[in-house]
Amino acid sequence: FLHHAARRLYEETDYAIFAWFGGSLIEGAQFARGWVQFMRDLKATPDFAAALVEKLAQAALTDLDRFLDAVGEYVHVVGFGDDLGMQHGLQFHPDLYRRLFKPYHRRLYARVHERTQAYVFLHSCGSVYDLIPDLIEVGVDILNPVQTSAAKMEPERLKREFGDRITFWGGGACPQRVLPFGTPEEVAADVRRRLEVFAPGGGYVFAPIHDIQPDVPPQNIVAMYEAAQRWGRYPVG
User: Fold this and answer.
1) Torsions phi, psi for 163 (to 5 deg)
2) Phi, psi torsion values for 78, nearest 5 degrees
3) Among 16, 96, 149, 216, which has the highest number of CB atoms less than 10 A from its own CB?
4) pTM above threshold 0.90
């Protein structure tokens, strides 16, 4: 089914085709053990935690090969998800990521680049600033959702330091503050400001930071999209 669906879209439309794979190692371990228990495992039984992550990575690589067999020749973006951050920082020390997870992320993302012409998209919530250089190194082409309300994730800082090396997909409107609590005029002004930071020079895909929640007034959603249409066309800035 996936092969035929991807082929049809590729041959019959001019869409950019996004194929979501997932491949979560951190979240996979947290779901398997429970968030609190896995964080304990990392400290109390690190050998067990490492073995669990290795098994998850082996399964993900096997599944990824099957996935790419089906859709790899037709898709433009392959999506992964693994939350590294929280509101005020990373879930764990950068050295732990580099030792335990980074080698497997490198293998997963390299497999996409080796077997396809697709870009690697990573959905990773929270404050991931401290690991963006590592993500670029292991082959992430596109970072999402760009949670600018989290620590050290200011649009100006991200664009200045990484805008020539990675594409930002998101960060276009804040569902925690402005979208639910602002006026349509405030939403439009916020969207314009973000576009003026992220969009110049390319490497940006407009989207709200995360899912739009039920408490967001419909008129604010309309204001967001109208502002993106008005100020998000090139040339920007």
Assistant:
1) -65, -20
2) -115, 125
3) 216
4) yes
